[in-house]
Amino acid sequence: MTNYLDQLNEAQREAVLQKNGAMIIIAGAGSGKTRVLTYRIAHLMKQGVDSFSILALTFTNKAAREMKDRIGKMVGHSEAKNLWMGTFHSVFARILRSEADKLGFPKNFTIYDTQDSVRLISAIIKEMQLDKDRYKPKQVLSRISSFKNSLITVKAYYNNSELQETDKMANRPRIGEIYQQYVDRCFKAGAMDFDDLLLRTNELLTRFPDVLAKYQDRFRYILVDEYQDTNHSQYLIVRALADKFQNICVVGDDSQSIYAFRGANIQNILNFQRDYEDVKIFKLEQNYRSTSNIVEAANSVIDKNKTKLDKEIWTDNSKGEKIKVMRTLSEGEEGRFVANSIFENKMNHQLKNRSFAVLYRTNAQSRAIEDALRKKDIAYRIYGGLSFYQRKEIKDVLSYLRLIVNPNDEEALKRVINYPARGVGQTTIEKLSVAANHYKKSIFEILENIDKVDLKINSGTKLKLQNFVTMIKSFQIEAQIKNAFEVADFVIKQTKIIKELEKDSAPEAVSKVENVQELLNGIKDFIDEQNEEPEDGTERKTDTSLAFFLEDVALATDLDNEKDKNEDSVSLMTIHLAKGLEFEYVYIVGLEENLFPSAMSMNTRSELEEERRLFYVALTRAEKQAYLSYAHSRYRWGKLVDCEPSRFLEEIDDKYIDFMTPKVSPNINKFINEDIFGDVPQDKVRFKKPVQRAIIKPKSKQKPKTVPKTIQISAPKNLKKVSNLNQNLFDSNITVGNVVQHSKFGKGEVVSLEGVGSNKKAEINFDSVGNKKLLLQFAKLKIL
Ligand code: ATP
Ligand code: MG
Q: Which residue has a Cα nearest atom 16 of ligand 1?
């Protein structure tokens, strides 16, 4: 390969060549921060730095894999494999694995995912007989999570009257007790949740100076991507590890800090200079990702934020098309707009699906987009929903596997103790749980000693429980001689899980069976990957044990389990998940007040600024073209609500924007799209007044291949529809006091109005029949 240093600009090269010391690269989106980290690692290795002594922390495991792959190409794959690279959670889970006993945890501790944590908290709330509407398990978990990420232990919580006061004010005075219970129960189950992976690492590094020294010596070079989104716990880990050699390089962009709600602290960037000696600061100012229109539009938006570091970003790239803004009537129409536009761009520019991404503020918005893409037969993939491993049927199988590795795992045990059904009822499980708490043992330990404790469980049930214990123990014996795949296969057969799933005749049941099979395939792949011969013939330690597989699964996000790297689908994800990624064409949907910016983040300047940064992140994902859309009404929480365009649309300087919406009534657009033309893109539709005839005329700039140039609509059937619609249009303008004509009731006066959109009703005082409430959609009123 050509000299890799030639693939960098001067500022980037300088940052790569600066070998030792503390350095921070603060730069705008798309300026090559991640590229610098990647090249820096390759360069260190070329300079003879041992790959085992480099630690790189990334935002997703996928990012780590891509980085490793790139480095592998530059310095050889087998060397690159030795790098310590991954998310904070995965790297420190690995370290905790070998040090857990120091903290009183088993080495094969379980990692609870969010689902497990929520279930445990729900159980605690129930056992404490608290009101679950006041103590909502998810909210309680996020409160506990915020304590952990600020290193506030239970003891520290009780020493902090301010925190306790806050919970009292929020009408949740017993948070401390739940926190205590939760921590105890996790400990007893030999389980750590995601936050524990950081909290316990901190504990390990502070309580055991020899352990700290060991890892300080191991990680001579530390690099952190997306530093602006590290929380306090992560910050402390990095600081402790880097303290000895101070070879630390962090990169970030304060304008892309979007995780404050999860405890990320932008101060970490600002304080960096204070924390290390002789910090070198690098700035990258050239954007290589996007057209100049996009770069400048993004700059014009982020300029509105008061809190930000001073930095410029410019690009040599061509101007490109303006950002297109689309106004739509409903979320359904928005979905169709996106699908049509993707289809058209694919045709016009011969593109693959993977060139496109649709980004939204909340996961709920994906449904309308999905519907429209499906109708157009465009393959898509949603990121950030329930991951494969969190599906019920998969979690059930995994729970058996987790029990084999760690029988104290309470959440796993509760899932499968009566699945497939073996006659163990809820009351029995509750009795076991109470006993476990009383004796300070795990449920499994109680089960093992079921004869010695008086639980008032009848002998029939007792026998069933003993059989369950025997079964799990027999699995454990198998696990000693078999690899992960063989064990899983054995467990699935012995427990008859597939048969259980096949009993269900619902159509989804078939896919559940397939999913379980897919899980087996996944385990097989995992083993094959582990056994892969390094290209240069060197020996590599392989680990195909169940525990290792389970750890991999626990830390996998669904951004990670791409089945096939060459998969060709449109990416659908929240903006939060899109950080660091890039796509040629990006659609940002739902640009409406209360949705984006979110209704929950408009109370303070700092919240609003975070939403604006989120918009900046979204916009700067686009390489060639960005589309923004909003709807006039949308279903939210089951209700149709009227929406206003987002303030962010106004904040982009006009000169970078092109409004696509034709200047006709929104109702007519809806009609055109749905009823007459199906898939004709809206911007190709113009109306001649009066509304009896539609002419489809492409805008001259765009070169549609799929749409005929002009179509006259003259069919009487359509004419009729148009005139009905005309009538409806009229209705939506009705106000109190209007005198109206109804086909059956005659003349009347509008007394009041209620509801919105298709639910809008008017109360009318008719001369003939008195007061009547009518749904405007159907009333066909004429204003006189
Ligand atoms: P973000 O802030 O979104 O994380 P970033 O600063 O990490 O962005 P990169 O992802 O590293 O930016 O780079 C953006 C794009 O520009 C990538 O496609 C990268 O390959 C390309 N790029 C970066 N530097 C150069 C360069 N010197 N020459 C050519 N392409 C470059
Ligand atoms: Mg990056």
A: 288
